[in-house]
Amino acid sequence: MTEIGSPLTTVWGAAPALAGWAAAWRAGDCSPDDVLDALHDLDGQSVLTHQVGVADIETAGELELRPTGEGTDALLRILRAPTVFEVLTPAPGDTMGLPAGPVRTAALNAGELVVLRDPRRRKTFCLIAHRADRYTLVWTLHSCPQLRTPVPRPLCEVEYELREAVREVTDILSRLSGRTNTPEDLRARLHDLTARRMVDLPPTADDRVHRVIAQAAQVGAIADLALQSAGGFGVTGTHQDTGETALRRLADLARVARMTAVNTAIARFGVVEN
């Protein structure tokens, strides 16, 4: 194993931000410094250093990387290579085609990853981030030759489902208020959770992409907040189970909507397979 350090902390938002801004860079819409700047503040903590590690010696050889790891220049070189980007947001019960083994375990722990496909060499790699320490983000590359990702859904279809979900979570929010939360506390917690679920994408991305990401952040935040306040839904165990099932469905919808929006932006920047 040649991975740098150990996964001390997962960091949400790194993979979609990296892929979205790297796609814009390759399209000529921003500079490599803009890509790194977009990753400077993640989950409320600064990122000052990037390191690239590999899951095994074979992956290092295929990508011409030192087995001991490399720095920011290597990350930019990988992103600049003629590869196809795609972001996945796997979760327990929805592994999105990831093969069993270390890559699936790492991806589920992180909750997100960047898929890099090299059509010319017919190679597929997965890039998964974790914090090695307070200021260092490590990107570990895994070879994923058997990865079969799900067929993407149209963004307009996902947006429609989110609009319907907003009505449902508004009712949930009203039931939460006044139980164990004051309205002020509820608003503060919801604001924090929503902000942490936002994805930083280039301003040149499509308006619908930004709109779906904002809606997904709101729906996911309310669903997660309600799940944290277990016991506030239903009187019987059956009713509570039904409520939690509905909340998890909303959380899953938000997770997939974020992924769909980011991948739509990537495709429109032109980083797609021909």
Identify the strand order in the major beta sheet. Answer: 3-7-6-5-4
Low-confidence stretches: 1-8, 232-240
Number of strands: 7
- Indicate the proportion of strand residues: 5-15%
Cα distance, first to last residue?
Answer: 34 Å
H/E element sequence: HHEEEHHEHEEEHHHH
Number of domains: 2
Percentage of helical residues? 40-55%
Radius of gyration over C-alpha positions, nearest whole angstrom? 19 Å
* Envelope shape: globular
Structural class: alpha+beta
Word description of this protein:
The chain is of the alpha+beta class and 274 residues long. The protein has two domains: 14-150, no CATH class; 155-260, no CATH class. The protein is built from nine helices and seven strands. The chain has helices at residues 14-26, 32-38, 57-63, 72-80, 102-110, 155-176, 183-196, 207-228, 237-268, and strands at residues 41-42, 45-46, 49-54, 84-88, 113-118, 123-131, 136-143. It has a five-stranded mixed beta sheet, with helices on both faces. The protein has a two-stranded antiparallel ribbon with strand order 1-2. A hairpin with a 4-residue loop joins strand 5 and strand 6. It is globular and about 55 Å long. The two termini are 34 Å apart. The model is unreliable at 1-8 and 232-240 (pLDDT under 50).
